Amino acid sequence: MRGFAAAPQPVEDADHGGSSGGSSMIEKKGITLRGVPLYLDMQATTPMDPRVIDAMLPFMTEQFGNPHSRTHLYGWESEEAVEDARAKIARLIGADPKEIIFTSGATESNNTAIKGVAMYYKDKKRHVITTQTEHKCVLDSCRWLQQRGWDVTYLPVRPDGMLDMSVLEAAIRPDTALVSVMAVNNEIGVVQPISEIGALCRSKGVFFHTDGAQAVGKLPLDVNASKIDLLSLSGHKIYGPKGVGALYVRRRPRVRMEPLMSGGGQERGLRSGTVPTPLVVGLGAACEVAARDMQSDLAHVRRLEERLRTGITSQLQGVMLNGPSDLALRYPGNLNLSFAYVEGESLIMGLKEIAVSSGSACTSASLEPSYVLRALGVEEELAHTSIRYGMGRFTTDAEVDRAIDMTVSHVNKLREMSPLWEMVQEGVDIKSIQWAQH
Ligand SMILES: Cc1ncc(COP(=O)(O)O)c(C=O)c1O
Ligand code: FES
């Protein structure tokens, strides 16, 4: 991680001549690690930027007032800080501050947008459209509606993860209330054609919601230019705190919705509950920094992605990219690769010294590999050996180089033990083999 003291420092392992003396063993969940793993999982969460922590601290100490207290200075200064944060979030996405609702994160924003809009318009419109590759919280919110009598269309995507505009257009009906399509996919980084979707939805009189958890603060996004009616964002994906997010709700043309939370009527009645000043201030600071640093952050992850991808593919055959290869269509901080001729579980277990995410089911309770990769048509074996490398603002060249070394040496080691790999080396066409059924 570069530059900042608060960012977690990787512990170099002895094999790579590290200087930080990280030979101490860590025992966790039955796995022995040689030190703190190298963190390349920025889609899961990001470390807080020290500038964000600095902004938050006063609101966890002296300035602890309830922002809704109207009768004293403690309340007034908290309210001022909350409104300042709201303006910073609005500025990042080209919105009016009045259109920003604070929530606990993108999960709540997505639930509120989808269920809230569908319930408000339920008498006239009972159809919702989304895609098969959305985040679980979007898919589950849609299932929730289905169980209560709504009709939901889950659109397929192309093999690179992109939504086909003609498929979307054909799915829109007179009773469609909402289209929900994420801006950037969390597993494969594909960037959906948000402006085209917005224009189509506006022309058909359908509201357009986008889950911007992986996009806001990382790629330029403007709610008016892209005709977005509702947008979800999350603090902890953009170097801000966990447990806070926001929902943008358009005022003109006005989007109406039922609140999911009953109570004191805060946030224009759409989200009752005391607004958590320190978290909201942190989100505001994260958005301000993101707006300022977006171009340099992007250039940084573009360079790292190129280094990582070419570093791995120049040394290994049989590596498949999941998602678009065109970097105009993929957020470069996300590189998702599948490794042929290795066994999924051994690959994941062997790479425990790098904190990455996997499309394999080894890491979860389900036995199915990633539904996102399956929706792209990735073969089951390759879905099992997929690794998502997530890079960000604080990722360094040295970390990427270690990830390349570890990946290459581990994949080579597994392939040396693989009879399948031996056959491939000998020129046998694996697909032509009749495997014994059992
Ligand atoms: C695309 C996407 N949507 C929603 C979420 C949920 O965000 P939060 O953790 O803020 O609830 C995530 C995070 O995993 C995500 O990647
Ligand atoms: S690799 Fe573990 S379940 Fe597929």
TrEMBL record:
Cofactor(s) it depends on: pyridoxal 5'-phosphate
Region (Disordered): 1-26
E.C. number(s) listed in UniProt: 2.8.1.7
InterPro entries tied to this protein: Aminotrans_V_dom (IPR000192), Aminotrans_V_PyrdxlP_BS (IPR020578), Cys_deSase_IscS (IPR010240), Cysteine_dSase (IPR016454), PyrdxlP-dep_Trfase (IPR015424), PyrdxlP-dep_Trfase_major (IPR015421), PyrdxlP-dep_Trfase_small (IPR015422)
GO biological process: [2Fe-2S] cluster assembly
Keywords: Iron, Iron-sulfur, Metal-binding, Pyridoxal phosphate, Transferase
Domain Aminotransferase class V span(s) in chain numbering: 39-402
The protein, known as: cysteine desulfurase
